[in-house]
Amino acid sequence: MNGPLRIVLADDHGMMRAGISALIRSMSEFDVVGEAENGLDLLDLVRDLKPDIAVLDISMPGMSGTDAAARIKKDYPEVRTIALSMHKTEDWVLRALRAGVQGYVTKDATAVELKEALRAVAGGDMYLSTKISRQIVTRLLSDPESGSRYDQLSDRQREIITLVADGKTTNEIAEVLHLSPKTVEWHRSQIMDRLGMNSLAELIRYVVRIGVLDP
User: Fold this and answer.
1) pTM of this prediction?
2) Mean pLDDT of the 76-96 span
3) Average pLDDT over residues 155-171
4) C-alpha to C-alpha distance for 165 and 206, rounded to whole angstroms
5) Cβ neighbours of residue 113 under 8 Å, at least 6 residues apart?
6) What is the pLDDT of residues 198-213, one digit of tens each?
7) 132 domain residue, yes or no
8) Which phi and psi angles does 191 have, rounded to 5°?
9) Residues 1-35 pLDDT 10s
10) Could you tell me which of 84, 71, 109 has the C-alpha nearest to residue 92?
11) What is the separation, in whole angstroms, between the first and last Cα of the chain?
């Protein structure tokens, strides 16, 4: 990566926007290159500045953050999006995910959590705030209309599940995929939750059964 990742920020509350902007700018690996107070202005920023990530409030007047996220996904698929919201209920989270956001962070999140979200999304992963209950996360990620539970895993998660089932340790997986061991452990936890597994043995039996790994 050459220089800090470029972030655009949209929130209709000026004081909130200023605070979040200052927080992100305090992180050496990120820089806020543009700010907007509504979805339409955000789209203009994305078009003109071509940022790496757009951080947006989902409840803005005019064009909402979810509508803006859907437009960004359609017109600028290379730009990642993170929803920043005071809402923690399943309806709001599901609406944002269906719009195409890659991250969902609550506004009472810590600076550490926001940094983790930015890093995860920049690396091609998804991130959901720890303030969102496990029950909600599990239900969102097990939508029967989306196909089998395995089909709902990301490409990175499928790589990890195969390596785990093949007997690779966390450190070995981290080396193969050029990730940190902590990131691998986080992915494995997400995989276990998504598949409803409680042990490594269950996971191995599952991938053998569906044909991901030969017995």
Assistant:
1) 0.64
2) 87
3) 79
4) 9
5) 105, 129, 130
6) 766 667 666 655 655 5
7) yes
8) -65, -45
9) 578 999 999 999 999 999 999 999 999 999 999 99
10) 84
11) 40
pLDDT tens for residues 28-78? Answer: 999 999 999 999 999 999 999 999 999 999 988 888 899 999 999 999 999
CB 45 within 8 A of CB 8: yes
Please give the C-alpha separations between residue 37 and each of 6, 20, 50, 177, in angstroms, as whole numbers: 18, 13, 18, 38
Q: Is 199 exposed, middle or buried (0-12, 13-18, 19+ CB in 10 A)?
A: exposed
20 and 41 share one domain: yes
Instruction: List the one residue out of 13, 59, 58 whose CA is nearest residue 35.
Output: 13
Indicate whether 31 and 81 sit together in one domain. Answer: yes
Spatial contact of 141 and 98, defined as CB atoms under 8 Å apart: no
Instruction: Determine the structural domain holding residue 115 and report its residue range.
Output: 5-136
